[in-house]
Amino acid sequence: MKTRLDWSAYDSYGQGDAYAHIPAEGGAYGKAAAVCIGNRQCQREEKGVMCPSYRVTHDEAHSTQHRAATLKAALNGEYGVQPFIGPELEAAMALCVGCKGCKRECPNGVDMALLRTEALAQRWAGLGKIPLRERLMAHLPRLAHYFRFFGWFGVLRDNLPLLAKAMERWLGIAARRSLPRASSRDFLSSAPVAATVPGNAREVVLLVDTFSNHFDPQIAQAALEVLQAGGYMVHVARPADGERPLCCGRTFLSNGMIEEARKEAARMVDALWPFVERGLPVIGLEPSCLLMLRDEYYALGLGERVAAVAKSALLLEEFLAREADAKRLNLNFKVVPGQVLVHGHCHQKAFGAMKAMRKVLGLVPQLQVEFIEASCCGMAGAFGLEAEHYEVSMQMGELSLLPQVRAASADTLLIANGTSCRHQIRDGAARESQHLAQVLRKALGEQQKETV
Ligand code: SF4
Ligand code: SF4
After folding, report:
1. Do the beta carbons of residue 115 and residue 32 sit within 8 Å?
2. Ligand 2 centroid, distance to 123 Cα (angstroms)
3. For the chain, what is the mean pLDDT?
């Protein structure tokens, strides 16, 4: 079996372990599935993220363990010669939202999100085609530029149930979902190439993802202003080939289009390399985009530069917390009396970034910060937009996140760094939430803005 991802990190798994049930086929991919030892910690529902699909269904068939077991059975030939196009794997993987809860919380670190990506790629290869909806979702970064010209269509579709229903039948996009709206102006076309500040400023690189560029440019702007206010010289990352904006490749990877994800990731590595070589930190805003550089890039076979890129890649909160720890952070936040309620993106939690969120918000005088204890919000990229997943997506949100958001007073500020999480909060609780960068920008007040 020829795998699409590089599974060599699992090459030595199970060596000398007579009890490691390594499947007959699949090589290191099979070994990655065999990491699951079946002790069913993923079928518990205490604190944490793992596993949102089990938490809402209470059905073992939608647990991480069952997914790993089904994959192992498939690689052992139990579902015929073409197991990836059969119903067993499709059903087992159907409700996996790729949250990475298992990668962090499973005692053995089963990375089901990545295992599922390979299974999906194998499925498309076996079928010889990729469904239109998945292709559209995957190509969002390339299509997003055109969204602003069709804002009227989004408004029409969200207000005409018949049109929404027709789209659901044609494309499989849930009629009860609002569509993401692009901003009338993207961030990158007017962003400075390198905004300078006087003196010996430290240089940093701001990585503006598709979502912060086209859908929420105010987030990228806020991050730029916060960094400039801290005295950093900000380089905004641009493609080395001067073509379309950079993209981490996440939407391609989530939809099993590994070759396209690899191409985007290679462009990203090329663009960042001159900065990474100089030791500059690369600061990202959208958790699932930035953290891909530290995680899935290793599985894309991009060569040795990946380790250095991964080491440089930081979320805004991680960078600021690190600077604060090193006593280098020069941001004068004004007193902001009030309450904020924070929802962490699953990938922020999987990579331990919530501590940094707590630390950075703690720098704002008198801000009372509360963290929501919740699993996945349920939107999970395109998952919640898919018609067949709408109900379960809302159930995931209703487990904890949405009731807590509804219970918050109207003047409580909501923070959610993930674009999907903000979408889910908007749809499910009719509340707007903000990125940390926007809250920090506000906490700087007008005076500091004028100095940048
Ligand atoms: S996925 Fe992890 S927690 Fe679940 S059964 Fe396997 S080893 Fe245990
Ligand atoms: S990635 Fe998330 S949804 Fe998928 S198996 Fe792991 S914990 Fe469950």
Report:
1. yes
2. 19
3. 94
